[in-house]
Design brief:
The protein is of the alpha/beta class. 49% of the residues lie in helices and 25% in strands. 29% of the residues are buried.
Length: 160
């Protein structure tokens, strides 16, 4: 074969899209979690909360969940178009959600307001083009906010 890398890239992309319907039927609709935005907190703290939210969404077992790290790995290994590289805004994630056939996109912020840490999450339904849920939790420390992240995810999912 003359272009094994191109074939591998195309094959991985095809497998990603082909495998998705079966997984989506088993777990429900696909859900894409954007990296949470850090406002008044360190980037590594927001990243840890993003990971906790991803894990909580996955454990809820209602959706096939794709998170920032998953998407970066898919891009790194050629399973997603290079045009999504460095995705950082809502329009980019909306395009990615359509490409991945994700029904829901979850976005949010990890903020510090005075002495209080706040996690705000919102879920957008790409089929109705409307928000389908919002949740917010507050904690006195970033560590407690991390521990309470599953509670915010549960509240977000219960509002659908």
């Amino acid at each position: 074969m003359r272009h094994p890398k191109a074939l591998l890239t195309a094959g991985l992309f095809a497998l990603t899209l082909a495998a998705a319907p079966g997984a989506a039927e088993a777990k429900g609709d696909k859900l894409l979690l954007q990296d949470l935005v850090a406002e008044g907190v360190e980037a590594h703290e927001a990243s840890a909360i993003s990971t906790a939210a991803c894990n909580a969404l996955s454990k809820a077992d209602k959706h096939e969940v794709l998170c920032g790290d998953d998407l970066r790995n898919m891009m790194r290994f050629g399973a997603l178009a290079a045009s999504f590289d460095q995705c950082a805004d809502d329009a980019c994630y909306a395009g990615m959600a359509k490409a991945l056939q994700a029904r829901f996109v979850v976005s949010g912020k990890v903020s510090r307001l005075g002495k209080v840490y706040v996690l705000s999450l919102s879920m957008f339904d790409t089929t109705t083009n409307k928000p389908s849920g919002r949740a917010e939790i507050k904690a006195s420390t970033i560590e407690q906010l991390h521990l309470d992240t599953p509670e915010a995810v549960s509240a977000l999912l219960s509002k659908r």
